[in-house]
Structures
1.
Amino acid sequence: MVGPNYDSRRGRLQKKLREAGIDGLLVTGQANVRYLTGFTGDSSWLLMLSGHPPVLLSDTRYETQLADECPGLAVEIRDAGGTLPRLFAKLARVAKVRRVGFEADHVTVSLLRQLENSLASGGPEAAVLTDTAGLVERLREVKDKFELAEIREAIRIAERGFAVVRSSLRGSQTETEIRYLLESAMRDFGGSGTAFEPIVGVGPTAALPHAHAGERRVSEHSVLLVDWGAAVKSGYRSDLTRVLITGKPTKQIEKVYGVVLGAQRAAISAIRPGVRCADVDRIARGMIADSGFGKFFGHGLGHGFGLEIHESVRMSPLSEQVFEAGMVVTVEPGVYLPGKFGVRIEDDLLVTAGGCEVLSSVPREFEDSLSGVLA
């Protein structure tokens, strides 16, 4: 399969810079650098200046790796006595640019001061920094064929790992033991690691949306929530959640499960290009509220993912975004009853020209959640 077209990605970014009226951009966000260059290391920046070839700024630790992963790209290596801000200022001075953007979401106040001081040392003709937000992240919202193939593989690996966990459930297992088994299984099936720390919650732990696996045992409650994903070598990820009913379900458990599943179905049915993300969130949130559980659903309905597990494209009441074909998002409504249990059902979707495609395939009907548990 053909790999990423980094030249095309950088070309689209250059167009955005021209539209913004700036002479260049200092890319410091690690995932953004990877998206634009293919470099898998850290502590390295990409400088894009109008009329000049892009250049990677790094240090001697990555000199060989940069040559291997980013052939054809110019590289500037700072020495042991130098800093990246000084190297950036030198390149901006040589290029004689006036306005250079920086990624406000990835630059600390301390780093900004270092950059400004380094530029100021060049005298009154030094370039001026201007803050930008989301320029690269918005490019990353719509996935290309390579990205979609990698995400599909990450989903496949995650689903195979979950099948191992489900087939070997025992009442004596702790949340932490299940987490470690899941992580190991995904690596056995070809994953480079986990997309994030798996959330494994029994009963009251499942009522914590971002719980850490602890020592509760499966036998302690009928509800087991697992939120997990795999990462593949290219850096792309998956993100899924399922609830398993490991004992006799109460009427309340069955009711909550049905409410969450119904809200997810309605949301998925509404997703298509041109639809506002906030409107889809409103559909699911309204159904949960109408069922009497509105105050127990406090997070957004879903988010984009790819090189990072939370990326631009947010489904929440505050979102101003609109769906476009090629976006990949989660849809994950939930109801969390403190001290009792929680239910979240999460799938990964691709927005298509005519609607959307559910990429994940783990069954999600209530009957599918009923799981026999070994002693």
2.
Amino acid sequence: MSAEIELLLSILDEAYEKQAWHGPNLRGALRGISAEQAAWRPGPDRHNIWEIAFHAAYWKYAVRRRLTGEKRGSFPVKGSNWFNKPGSVSEKAWREDLRLLAEQHAALREAIAAMDPGSLQEKTQGSKITNVRTIYGIAAHDLYHAGQIQLLKRLLPED
């Protein structure tokens, strides 16, 4: 594997699940959150933690699809970008959606690991930016939403 691909995977992993100097990554921000907490909304028409986690899963899928040329419509749930979550508040449903996030991360990681390093400077399918910037972008996306989740956790009502 090339040094460039290894670096991209390291950045991607640090933003999602590997220890980082900056504080919690996305998976760390989600750790220990109950289904009830994940479903709590800070106000009308505001996203909850559950929706943010599911949104992150969708965009890992979307980036993988763009990098590999996979057809649209293969995400396990119908829809795109933001999904109204939860359908029903249960620990099982919350764990299943967290599992989907982990699966989408692993699939994206696998797609990046299989890339030809020469394709990193090519434009991402359907985009004006390069594959390498798209990969940096999805890592930044994880960190952005990790920060949102950390703020929402501070706003959660006391039990």
3.
Amino acid sequence: MEDDILRPVSVAKKTTEAHNMVSFELVDPNGAALPAFSAGSHIDVTIPGGLVRQYSLCNSSSERNRYVIGVWNDANSRGGSKALHGQVNAGDTLQVGLPRNRFRVPRSTKRAILLARGIGVTPILSIADYLKSQNIPFELHYVFAMMSPGLFNGMIKDSNFAENTKLYYESSELNQLLNPAALLQDQPDDMQLFICGADWWQDPIINTAKQKGFAEERIHVERFTVKVPAAILDKVFDVKIASTGNVYKIPGDKTVTAFLEEKGVKIPTSCEQGMCGTCKIKVLEGEIDHRDKRLSPQQKEEGFFIACVSRARSDLLVLDL
């Protein structure tokens, strides 16, 4: 399928943006135009070791000559960010997928408030650029995380939306703190809210927005962390690998991808939230308990299965692996 297309890109630049933060400028090795993307998009990046991870595009969606991503060197990394920080440099080649967007700006948008913290600013930068180019009124309120003061500050200062941006610092000395309740109070009914940052930071703001009258459809959220409920009471079921005939019993507290990887059956994953489709598999037999946010009704009818979150209603699933 088209979503599965990978293309090589060269690392044109690797830039240290702040403590534990780098950006990568990715270009076509032959100087060709890259596939177009819309503001708020992300790409799958295949990195050393075969891992696949998603990164938001933070440059202008009008640009076809490059993709720019920001990568935080997460201390709790499962290997992706550490590999990019430590092993990938200018001149190296990576594989990327086609841009995809789950943080899209609605066509009906007439005005907007953008809120971001830390690395969460990456998709917001592209959205701010788009709104500015369309002459749509907006404000960008950006909180510098404590460990990354100045992150993307140069990019913001050089942008077309610098005048629309207000910066905040997590520092009592500077005492420039975001006040979401005041900011979201008495906003027009057509105001759109875009927010991205750590869950512990953005979830209270989302709740405040709802209390201030923002309808669900006017609140647009991008999440970087997994929010999957504990599966300890989930159904236990078997999966059979069609090519080998091997059968594995999936326990109630593990996902299909995680358990099979422990047994040496590697299924490519990326978001592990049921959103990207990297771990899509055809089920040849059995009834699926779909829990993803990716598959279309037609794909579900065709028997596709997102293995990082979905499970079985029947006692057995036969996987086309």
4.
Amino acid sequence: MFFVKIHKKLGREVLAICDEEILGKTLEEGDFYFEIKEDFYKGEKLSEEQVRVLLKNSPNYNLVGKEIIKIALDLEVVEKENIIKIKGVPHAQGFIV
């Protein structure tokens, strides 16, 4: 399962998805400090099938977690070179300007 929240601002949407088990955690490594905040990621709890549909149709996204990144790679939404890892947890963002 995944937590999904859609943020709407200035006529644009950003799809925020994280793996269920990492919500609320803080990742620190070197210069990186990343909070997987509930107010940003905690929306609906959705299945893999549901997040696949959303990812296929969203040009703007913020993804964190091994499972959601694996799905994004499978759908070719994300390329490996655009993924960073913090404490072994992958993170990717994509935005259409």
